[in-house]
Amino acid sequence: MASETASPTVNSPSSTPTQAPVEKPSTPPVNILPSPTARIYSLVHPALLLTLCTLRFEALVADPIRELLADLPWLAFLQITYVLICLPPAGTTPTEASFPAPTDGEDKKKTPPRSPSGPGVTLRPGKPGLRRKQLAGKHDFAGVWAKLMPAFLSLSLTFLLATPILAVLLVLFGAPLTTHNPETVLCAAHIALLCATALVYVHGVDGYVWKEVWGISRPADAVWGSALGTGLGAWFGAIPIPLDWDRPWQAFPITILVGAYIGYAVGSLLSRTPLLYGKRIQFTPVEDEEGEKKTN
Amino acid sequence: MAKSVRASVSKRNRANLRKKVFGPVVDARTERLAAKLQDLASQPRPEASEKSEMDLGADGANDHNANDAAKSSQTGEGWSLLVPWTFCIFFGLNLVNFFGLPSEMDLDALKTKSRSQKSGRVQKRNRRTRPSILRYIYAGLSLGIPPPPGSYGGTMAIFRSSWATLVANLLVPVGILTFSSGFFPYKPLLPGLATFENENGTPAVFDKVIFMVVDALRSDFVYANGSGFLFTQSLIRSGAALPFTAHASSPTVTMPRLKAMTTGSVPSFLDVILNIAESDTSSTLAYQDTWLAQLKARGDRLVMYGDDTWLKLFPGMFDRADGTTSFFVSDFVEVDHNVTRHVPGELSNSDWSALIMHYLGLDHIGHKAGPRSSFMASKQHEMDMVVGEIYSAMQQKPHLQSTLFVLCGDHGMNDAGNHGGSSAGETSPALLFISPKLEALGERAESPVEPFADLQYYRTVEQADITPTLAGLLGLPIPLNSLGVFIPELLNMWDHGSQKLHLLHRNARQLLNTIQATFPGSSFGLETIASSCASGPDSGIEGAQCAWSQVHQLLADAPEAGDSYTLAGPALLRFSKIAQDVMSSTASNYNLGRLCLGLLVTAIAAVLVFPTTCHQCMQSRYAGVFLMFMIIGYGAMMFASSYVEEEQQFWYWICSGWIVYLHARSQSSSKPGSSRLNKAASLGLAVSLRFLRRWNQTGQKFAAEPDIGRTFFPRNPSILWGLVVVAYADAGGQLLSSLPDAILLKLWALTLTIGAFGFKLNFAASDVPELLDGTFISKTVGMWPNGPSLILQARLVFGGLICLVLLAICRRYRLRIARAAPNALLHGALHLFLMTQSRVTNIPLFLIFRTQAVMLSSMNLTGMELTITGLVLQYMTFFAFGGSNAISSVDLSNAYNGVGSYSVLLVGVLTFVSNWAGPIWWLSQNHLLRTSQVSTEHNPAALLTFHVATSVISVMAACTALRTHLFIWTVFSPKFLYTMAWATAHHVGVNLLGELGLSSLRSR
Fold first, then answer.
1. Any chain A CB within 8 A of the CB of B971?
2. DSSP structural state of residue B523
3. What residue ranges are annotated as transmembrane (chain B) (predicted)?
4. Nearest by CB: B23 against A214, A245, A286
């Protein structure tokens, strides 16, 4: 247990040990796994996505539907690779262990009533400690399995749940409703892959966490930062559309998607910095934090 | 980017400091001060003042908080005094309250406190101990504006911010006026009529002219395949008609275009406003030189039938006239029948030498149903019949033997059927010169031709060219201020080269006169011939000089008059062309000094309210950041023409962002009061926003796309009328519930609501009859008694509303419940009034507004959040109602409700209200929401003033920086006009004065 908890604090020694446990009563921020591969790939991954986005840009402008559809499996593959390599799967969030007793109790109190409703019951055995023991013991096969299952779950949830929800949100934010429906759905699928995959992988179907996500009040970490960045990027991506340049790339989903990709990369990188890590947007208690809103 | 990151980092650091270091101290101190202030109230005088002084001395850095504590008791009064600058006569009482003694409440609370010289000392101390730069500015302000004598420390901030806000609101209109005087310049017009200078004119080719204007006759309506102008096309083929496309420069609305066609000048932008204020006498052409005035001066008679704009432009010019007002755009038939029925009679009369006809039906069809509607072909055919009738009369009747028939449009229309802007469709009307005599020229053209996108059929000439061409052909002097160039195709009507040369020379001389009047410094003597001219510029004033010197040379060199035409003719035309370009592009000389002065004055206004704004933004972190982000984004947007055209996108975008903020906020608040409705409210807001967004497509880029108001409702009129009925029922219910208990009043309100609905129904029946076809309501209309005229109905509704409000307020006074202002009642009455002033298709929007208001009131927003919500929704709904930054989108359909005869003030007010119905509604609703809030320490006036001042500054800066931009008159100037309306009429006129009136009602 101790070895598990030590890992994230080693990773970002400046802020986590002091801030995360003391201030946040809820599920703490999730950090990138400590292994060197994970740390390197977590930096490479956003760059990789951006590069791909740049490379496929012309094809995207030429035929958005076909290109978006063709890219979907690749993006899913990349995202799964990313979460498998870099992130701890649901139920093993290591910092949980370092919680002081009262918060842990609160966490437990919140989660059980919600977990039976979702399909992730199997994923979250009642006691996190059990799973961790397993992990620590047989690291080869069981470990891989323990990672593949949430990955599979996160993919299916991303497509079945997150995509429709995001499509509705896109429409609410001004995407056309009477036309361009395939574009909207594909755009939503891309955005869902960008932000939901990692969230589901890391948090499973923890109702409390998802409530926080819905309320935009998660503490900043690589996962939530990239999700929030994707959303903000998509929002800012709408800016060039009304310009009268009459360029083909000003068509509906393209700028939004490019904005989302850029936002993903920026958010995922920025939220890891000690300056932002673990902070959250809060309204009721007086808190600072405008970086999330403004830096994008 | 880097800069903003750095800024936000440092901001965050400061915020951290604030939170960790200052925060606890501040909180503690605020509490202490609040307690102290309460102590003050109860303690005897000398001790109290000493104590407060000590405290403020020690904690001077945070005097604001102390002020805030006191502010809550004062804001109500201070607020009412923000803008007494125009209404100070009416609200003089308040002013006396303000300057003389504090309000009752304050007297109660701080009765024992001395107000003599303590304030001065406290203030000085404050100034000395202020730590940040901001507060130095603050101190500077309080230095610059001496505090009113006899005020005390606790209320200093209010006094100062009120002063600042008041002065700022005074300065904004001053700045706007100063800027306008430099931006919309007075164009020097040469007075008097042109005469032939000691020479005889070229002999007239025609002695009569029939000038037929078909409003919005776009070039392809006549020339393209599928046009209804079959006879006219046959004339083009036979050579009896010379076809052109006449470029109509923006603003493409009727009056400036008529000015261009008759005076030959390029009308200034101000004519657009005067076009709306049509009967304004300053816009008449009675004292300007036109070809009509030249005819009249020659002793000829003129007759006119059609659009009464002509009668307003040329009072007393016509011997016989029958003006038609385009009152209802839905009238496709009567307006034209009114003209056509005079044609046979006038064609057999021989006493006139100019017959002017102006048909409006085609324009009405465009506005109503667009250029591709089914009515268009039959209307074109009808116009073609008129052309045929006139042409056959010209062939047969001896007194029409030498008549020129001009058929033209004053402007075109865009694909949505509107005009006013500068798209190809709007600027390309057709122009045809028709006469049997023209067949001799042998200029036969192919007709019809395939339609093409840029609409430049045949040769494109300027609309101003009509004037010198007509003057030349009719043997008149060219009007003095004309910038037109004689259309060379018609030169061949004269046989001799010398006559042609003479005409061109006259035209060039006249242009030279106008150019010399505009550029007194430049010389057009022979000495300007320079070697550089050979390769020099062929545009601009130098180009004109070179061209003129070339003309001189050629004229001097030419040995024979006969040859000189072939030599000098092209040179003369070239000079005229260059001169025209020079004069059209420099039609406005900006007064740069005035522009900068206007900017400076407005900037001072912004700086005055900046400290208060900053302070309030810092208090509410995210909301403040959002507001600043919005203000900066909005300001930056003004420099891009497409964002100005598509401003609605910005507000929809910002609004969606703001809803996310409200959502996150409502999720995070775990107060016991927050219900499920509260949490779902933001989702409801988002859905309703999505509907608003699609209600009326506006702007330029997406204007023609389908929407709810213009596409869905015409197809499903029953749904529309169902919603309208519900909206009126809702409005009536709201009004009833806000009335005091008196059965008579309630009955009155009920009748009024039904009457208002009846008026809207009758109005729709004559304005948009197609919306009533086949609906359940149309049967009701059939049974509806044929009531009084629409004007009387509207007057009854307006008068009834006023009486209702007055009676209800009187009754409240009698029952002694007047302490609470009748906000809800006024809002209910305003609601009904705004519905009366809105288009039928927009009335269901009020239902959406009402639900939004319910959702917002469930959210427990703070003052700052309410202010931002109100601001965003005001701008957003302006565009949702179909408004945009183009002149063509001004909705005049409800401008004449209850107005019998034209009155600038009444029509202006009604136009403003009908276009700003959404913003006014939200202003009132926002006020209602705010007064129901418990905390009143928030002062929105400064924030709103800051927003208005910055938006005015950015628009002015954009207009100054881009004054040579291609779109200055089509995009940026209209935006400036709209900003003017937002700042003066909406912000100062409705918002601040309304607030003032309400608070005076409350305090009485």
1. no
2. -
3. 82-101, 166-186, 592-610, 622-644, 743-763, 790-810, 866-887, 899-923, 944-964, 976-998
4. A286
